[in-house]
UniProtKB/TrEMBL annotation:
GO terms for cellular component: plasma membrane. It comes from the Archaea. This is Phosphate transport system permease protein. The chain crosses the membrane at residues 12-34, 63-93, 113-134, 146-169, 190-215, 263-287.
Length: 295
């Protein structure tokens, strides 16, 4: 066997080993997370955990209700997506199709740099700058609300949505765009009737990954949403303090006795969060594969 073949076999083995380690690590993480979470249900009914409207772990007896935490996470995430998706797709269209190449070469790297900013910086900005603005503008008791969290999570999800959507739009073959223009379509008609539909799979995957980024965020929502573990009303819940699943784990895990029901309840919350984000990523991959060859 030649030296070239030996190197290729070595590289293949290394890549296989890397993939195997990643899969095994994920499998072990699942076992650890679910094993600790399931122990809660030896003494606490599953139905009460899923449907109870209160989270009072220090009460006697303790009350572990997932519902207010789940709804808080969903409200904040839904608000973030409503804010970030239109803005992110519009920015991706501008960078890919409308901007001057020199401007585009600046905007794309700057957008990707935003993804590397620590979440605590976003949270500090939201707490010090955005929360007072929301409080004064809406004339509400506190600016630490689901709306503030939604805006900050939307800003954090923007780099993911913009970057992946821009790549999808740029990958549309130039011949399709030129054919549309040759048939008499304007540039704008070509964008929204040809280019965007052709890149829909990548845009959909970007939205799904943006949702996963938002729902799994911890530090920012912990700092700006008020951390009130009650079921938010509708539609006023967007302007009231809420608590998310991630914030609950971060706030309480360091203070609970190991092996207690409260300890296992936090692992159960983490299991629900893990399943939620796992499903979102599976859907994103399915959408991307399903429509990959539409072009």
């Amino acid at each position: 066997m030649s030296g070239k073949n030996i190197r290729e076999k070595g590289i293949q083995s290394l890549l296989f080993l890397s993939g195997t380690v990643a899969v095994v690590a994920l499998f072990l993480l699942c076992i650890f997370l679910f094993r600790e979470g399931i122990l809660l249900f030896e003494d606490y009914p599953v139905s009460s955990f899923l449907t109870n409207t209160k989270w009072f772990p220090t009460a006697s007896p303790p009350i572990f209700g997932l519902l207010p935490l789940l709804l808080g996470s969903l409200i904040v995430t839904a608000g973030a997506i409503m804010f970030s998706v239109p803005l992110g797709i519009a920015a991706a269209i501008y960078i890919s199709e409308l901007a001057n190449p020199r401007i585009s070469s600046i905007l794309k790297p700057v957008t990707e740099i935003l993804a590397g900013i620590p979440s605590v910086v976003f949270g500090f900005f939201g707490l010090v700058i955005l929360a007072p603005v929301v409080q004064r503008t809406l004339e509400i008791p506190t600016g630490q609300t689901a709306l503030t969290g939604s805006i900050m999570l939307g800003i954090m999800a923007l780099p993911t949505i913009i970057s992946i959507s821009e790549d999808a739009i740029s990958s549309v073959p130039r011949s399709i765009k030129e054919g549309s223009l040759a048939l008499g379509s304007t540039k704008w008609q070509t964008i929204y009737r040809v280019t965007v539909p052709a890149a829909l799979s990548g845009i959909s995957a970007a939205v799904m990954l943006g949702i996963g980024r938002a729902i799994g965020e911890t530090m920012t929502v912990m700092m700006v949403t008020g951390n009130s573990a009650v079921i938010p009303g509708f539609p006023s819940g967007l302007f009231a303090p809420v608590r998310t699943m991630t914030a609950t784990i971060a706030l309480e895990m360091g203070e609970v006795p190991q092996g207690s029901d409260h300890f296992h309840a936090l692992f159960a919350v983490g299991s629900v969060l893990f399943i939620t984000t796992f499903i979102i990523n599976i859907l994103a991959n399915y959408v991307k594969r399903r429509y990959r060859f539409n072009l």
